[in-house]
Amino acid sequence: MSFYLVEPECPGHLDEDVDLDLSSAPVRVAPGAPPLLFHGWLGDDLISTHPLYLATPPLARALSESLPGLVRVGPAARISLSEEFREFFPDTELPEFLRLDFLGRAFADDAGLTELGELVVSSRGLSCLSGFRLDQATVTEQGPEGVSAAGPLDSEEDAEFEDLTRVRRLVSVACAYLLLVPAVPLSVVEFVDPWLNRAVGALSLCLSLPALVAPWLRVTAESSRLSWVGCPASLIAVLVIALSLFRLL
User: Fold this and answer.
1) Distance between CA atoms of 202 and 191, rounded to whole angstroms?
2) Which residues have CB under 8 Å from 82's CB, separation 6+?
3) Of all helices (H) and strands (E), which one includes residue 140?
4) DSSP 8-state code for residue 249
């Protein structure tokens, strides 16, 4: 049987005075309607703020009917809105969110929590969730020894991040070479006026310092193979800096 770790959207946090049962594993919120402060909401039907899980009424009803004895639906959360929510989501109308208590055993039943409070569902449980909006959730397939495969959401996001990192890296390298175009001639041209010489040296120094740093911005494991593209720019920048300092001194 396959199991999946589900990490729902986290739109806010519990009030500081909420009662927690620290003697249990996982930690649980005391019975009743939990107070929840929203900082934003992107539309998912399942949300969480450790150690609590909540769902819109349709999803809560579907879970309780599909997974009897494993999900207990509690009262609706007492919702309050932060200043950030009012500013950035002025037209968003929040639905009612009902408390969910998962009673099953992780990696044994169709839905349950690990000792750390992580939600783990079986293929059957995931099938129930997939009928609702979970665009912001991360779903990872789990095996007996931990994570065995990333879900489609993780793969797509990782690929987009890697592509964006490469583009930013190439832009940084291109900027370095563009800065060196005026910096190189300015570092070698000579003027009769010593003050003009110093001013031009200072200008070439100002251009070459960013050129030295730019090729190495946003270096990650994925983009380190592009390092050779920026090496010539860095070497030229070092030479220009030396010439500029010589003129200033």
Assistant:
1) 14
2) 12, 37, 38, 39
3) strand 138-143
4) -
**Predicted model pTM:** 0.57
Nearest to 178 by CA among 244, 243, 233: 233
Task: Give me the residue label for tokens 């449980």.
Answer: 125
Report H helices in the chain.
57-66, 83-88, 123-129, 152-188, 194-213, 227-248
Contact by Cβ (8 Å): 31, 13: no
- Dump pLDDT digits (tens) for 174-215: 777 777 788 788 777 777 777 787 788 788 778 777 777 766
- Per the document, the length of the chain is 249
pLDDT, tens digit, 9 for 90 and up, residues 14-72 = 877 777 776 777 888 888 888 999 999 999 999 999 889 999 999 999 999 999 999 99
Angle at 146 between CA 145 and CA 149, to 5 degrees: 115
**Dihedral angle at the C-alpha atoms of 120, 126, 132, 133, nearest 10 degrees?**
60
Q: In the predicted model, what is the mean pLDDT of the chain?
A: 81
Q: In 3-state terms, the chain is what percent helix, strand and coil (to 5)?
A: 45, 25, 35
Query: Which tokens go with 229?
Result: 């593209």
**C-alpha angle 191/232/172, rounded to 5°?**
95
